Amino acid sequence: MDIPDGRQGLDRQWNDLRNNVCGTLRGCRDASAVAARFAGAGWSSRSSSWHGYELETSWCRIEIDPTDDADILLSGVVDPARLDELGRLLSGFGLPHELELTDENDVLAREISG
After folding, report:
1. Strand order of the sheet with strand 108-113?
2. Which of 25, 34, 63, 98 lies in disulfide reach of 113, CB 3.0 to 4.6 Å?
3. What is the pLDDT of residues 32-67, one digit of tens each?
4. CA distance 105 to 53
5. SS3 for 37?
6. Distance between CA 102 and CA 30 in Å, rounded?
7. What is the pTM assigned to this prediction?
8. What is the mean pLDDT of residues 72-98?
9. DSSP structure string for 40-76
10. Rounded mean pLDDT of 1-12?
11. What's the rounded Cα separation, in Å, for the pair 71 and 93?
12. What pLDDT, on the 0 to 100 scale, is given for residue 1?
């Protein structure tokens, strides 16, 4: 599910930030279906590997990759003030998730699940 249209990319203020969010989408095998849900919500989506996708909006850029355990790993950059919004989006998609946010020193700042 590649959607490389004119949708807004990640804001410049987050471009130089190292990965600060990681997590797992539980019981989910099909990264393509997850990418399609994000694309339907207005995010850009592009293939990043054989089975992985990069998903992007102005406040978040994440990669999703399926595992052999019927889960999907998620990692990338998120505006820390919008972590809960990412969680609500995943919950709205019916995707059980666990997310961790780290600060600029790679120290765990927050955890959320849904």
Report:
1. 44-47, 53-57, 60-66, 72-78, 21-25, 97-102, 108-113
2. 98
3. 999 999 999 999 999 888 788 999 999 999 999 998
4. 27
5. helix
6. 27
7. 0.84
8. 94
9. HTT-EEEE-SSS-EEEEETTEEEEEEE-TTS-EEEEE
10. 56
11. 15
12. 46
